[in-house]
TrEMBL record:
Protein's name in the database: N-acetyltransferase domain-containing protein
Native source organism of the sequence: Zopfia rhizophila CBS 207.26
Superkingdom of source: Eukaryota
InterPro entries from the UniProt entry: Trichothecene_AcTrans
């Protein structure tokens, strides 16, 4: 199987978001907290909206897709945060109204996220280097 990696368009992200969540099958506690109901159409639509909003609000966010060249099927992807300038602002985990069923769910998701990025932020604050972050998303294949 020949694979190709390309930047993902907004239209590609509509196809990629379900691939990501289907690959984890509801077994990733962080994704379940950060993107509630991610195996449902409603949850995936909210996740897509958050991703698209981040593309606009966070200039460092760059999505890549992995395509099976024989079938044209998107089989995986990754979001990279690439800092081309010295240190940009730190973004907190958030989402549009209705992302979480209640404030407790949101606080739990934010606590998980903060534990995930704690070391990255400490490194970020301790020097003048601009780190590269990657959220890698397997295809499940």
């Amino acid at each position: 199987m020949a694979l190709r990696v390309d930047p993902a368009s907004d239209e590609d992200l509509k196809r990629l978001i379900p691939v990501i969540f289907d690959a984890y099958g509801g077994h990733n506690p962080y994704l379940n907290a950060a993107f509630p109901r991610n195996l449902t159409k409603e949850g995936q639509e909210k996740a897509l909206q958050r991703v698209l909003d981040m593309q606009v609000s966070n200039e460092t966010s760059q999505w890549e897709k992995v395509t099976d060249t024989a079938t044209g099927e998107i089989i995986g992807g990754a979001m990279w945060l690439i800092y081309q300038k010295e240190k940009s602002e730190i973004h907190e985990l958030d989402g549009p109204s209705g992302t979480w069923e209640n404030e407790t769910e949101k606080e739990y998701a934010q606590a998980l996220y903060n534990s995930y990025v704690r070391e990255e932020r400490a490194f970020w604050e301790s020097n003048h280097l601009a780190p590269v972050s990657k959220l890698s998303l397997p295809s499940g294949k």
